Amino acid sequence: MAKIGIDLGTTNSLAVVYKDGTAVKVINSLDSYITPSAVSIDDDGKVLVGEAAKDRLISHPEVSASEFKRNMGQRYEVELKGVKYTPEELSSLILKKLKADSETFLGEPVEEAIISVPAYFDDNSRRATRIAADLSGLKVDRLINEPSAAALAYLEKNGYEDGTYMVIDFGGGTLDVSVVDVFDNIIEILSVAGNNGLGGKDFNEAIAKDFCGKNGLDYDALSLAERAVVYRASERAKIALSDMPMVMMEVPFESGKLMLTLTNQELISMSKTIFEGIREPVRKAIHDSRKKLENIDRIILVGGSCKMPTVREFIRQITGIVPDTSIDPDIAIAEGAAIFAAMKNKDLKDVVLTDICPFTLGIAVNNDILNDGSSMMSSIIPRNSTLPSSITRPYSASCNNQQKITLRVYQGENIHPEKNLFLGELNLTCPPTRFGAKICDVKMTYDINGILIVDVYTADGLAKTKAFRSNSSVLTEEEVEAMREKIEAAMLVSHEDERYRALIARAERVYEESFEDQRLALQRLLMVFRGSLDRRDPIKVQQSYKALSDLLDSLEY
Ligand code: ADP
Ligand code: MG
Prior knowledge:
Blueprint: E1 2-8, E2 12-19, E3 22-25, E4 35-36, E5 38-41, E6 47-49, H1 51-59, E7 64-66, E8 78-80, E9 83-85, H2 87-106, E10 110-117, H3 123-136, E11 143-145, H4 146-158, E12 163-170, E13 175-183, E14 186-195, H5 200-214, H6 224-240, E15 246-253, E16 256-263, H7 264-270, H8 272-288, E17 298-302, H9 309-319, H10 332-344, E18 352-353, E19 355-356, E20 361-366, E21 375-381, E22 386-387, E23 389-396, E24 402-411, E25 421-433, E26 438-446, E27 451-458, E28 461-469, H11 477-489, H12 495-513, H13 516-534, H14 538-555
Parallel strand pairs: 1-10, 10-11, 12-17, 14-18
Antiparallel strand pairs: 1-2, 2-3, 2-4, 5-6, 5-7, 8-9, 12-13, 13-14, 15-16, 19-22, 20-21, 20-24, 23-26, 24-25, 26-27, 27-28
Helix pairs in contact: 1-12, 2-3, 3-11, 4-10, 5-6, 12-14, 13-14
This protein binds adenosine-5'-diphosphate (ADP) and magnesium ion.
């Protein structure tokens, strides 16, 4: 029974399996190893996942969803065809699809997986990911942090060498920078920083706006359909520029075809603010790791946007380090997850991966400097601490003859406690203490399960202990059970059927994006294809499939 590694991404997901000493990408039913993280409900209620669903985001937005990873672990729902879906459920449909594709690809059942999550995912989001796996029928005994997975893929390929690595993961809509330390087969994340609003989509938009501007159009004033065509053409141009110095963009418009050449140099000048956005997380990750740029031995690039030569060059400029290109940015994370799965199977030598606390934990204390009755955050477990973490700090009395202690526990980075997440309160009495003298020690212990234990020791010994959950929106058993029924009942379309439906979804999307003269031909071929499917005439299905996909290829060049 195979065990797979899964990169469950915001934009794209994929599965990799480690077999006979190498990582093998799972090819899905549409012959690609990348499955867009999109879900759509078809007319007959069946569930489409991946490329077809991504196309339907444009032609059928009201029954399609994407980017739900952003809301993992939050109380959030989207309604598709009258049914409400949580991020856990939508993610479980992606996982269900990856599981099914892996089983077809490998020709054997797949029941276990290692799934990657961002290092900054808090306990809520991690638990949500586990619930999603559980709903999809996958057993997950561990989640792996994305930067650790990338480092693992790098080490497996290049040899286990101790050192300090910077992992830059630049995806469709997020940038994550981490500093990872490798020592004696222990992979420890020292820091994470990022910008969850910066990614490949920003380049697409910059190109689209520039294209319109130079053609005398206002991108924001275009119709939704027009914008979608320009946007897609822009993304295609961007991707093409990763392999060639210049591309010709052609976009069909009502008034005729608009064209523009684009070079990497031009891409750089129109994307200045995007590039500048990479600088701060890189600086912060190094700062928080307590390392210096000189200590970074290697930069590992992950995520689709790191395939851009302009991005690589910018990273080289700001760090003075030539980023490593020995691993494929698209699959590094899934590969690392697959390697870790194989280790758990004892097929490979063991490494130890550590988790970090993505936020600061502390208590509110009197503001002695202002002495105005306001309070300040006093950090006990600083963010980026390796877990499990246990830290003790002494506190002094805030008034004379103090006999009562109230500890208000918070999670967050703001100096003003009230702007952070309040986790709870602990009250106790203590022997009378004069102002400024030590009144107690506060010990905080935080483990990888998201449970925070606070112990308070006063002059007469351990006075009180209390456990807190660092989360606010835990699902109940009943809610999970209701989800399970829903997901078990959800029917993914079958393998062959999916190819047909994906072609229809693509045709409908292109129809949406094209103009009257093209629409007629498209409509005709789409009707012929649908008709042949209805009549279940295999030869006609094949012929009309080819005719329609050829036309689509020509329309999308
Ligand atoms: P995520 O981690 O957000 O799920 P990915 O790592 O798959 O996403 O990155 C997706 C982004 O990468 C998209 O914006 C896509 O346009 C971009 N991308 C993919 N391939 C290339 C390429 N060859 N050149 C430039 N950008 C690319
Ligand atoms: Mg990713």
